[in-house]
Amino acid sequence: MANNDDPYLIQADKEWNIITDEIDASRIAMRDAHRLGDEQGVRTYIRQIANLEAEQRNLYTTVNNYVNSQRQPAQPHVSRETRAARGPNEMDQQDLANMMNESRYSKLGNGKPFTAQDYDYLRRGLGPYLAARGREQK
Q: N or C: which end of the chain has fewer CB within 10 A?
């Protein structure tokens, strides 16, 4: 369940394992109570197992909600023709990056193609753009 670098998911994974161990222990205790003829003990352990399983389902739901909240929404696919038909006021970052890559100046420096993220850096100023591309401003 855990993502190796997310502390929340690491803790949730530990909690999942603790609950699983408690369920296993309750099942063993329930079998022992049944073997001894302790009906009250059996009922108690059945309720305990049901509550632990509900807790585990809630944890699963919470983790899935958290993971889904961390995902960035997928960008809708825009065809090449639609991008080409857009006016300047309708262009997004990717349109501008594509336009820059069509320029004869697009691969100056370290030869990497221009990306939408580069456009964001460039829009904020030349310094962040150059730093992101691995070049210092002199």
A: C
Q: Is 1 exposed, middle or buried (0-12, 13-18, 19+ CB in 10 A)?
A: middle
Single residue among 43, 70, 97 that ends a domain in this structure: 70
Burial of 75 (0-12, 13-18, 19+ CB in 10 A): exposed
47 and 93 assigned to the same domain: no
Q: What is the pLDDT of residues 98-112, one digit of tens each?
A: 777 777 766 655 567
Judge whether 114 lies within some domain: yes
pTM (2 d.p.): 0.53
Residues 12 and 62 in one domain: yes
Average pLDDT over residues 113-123: 72
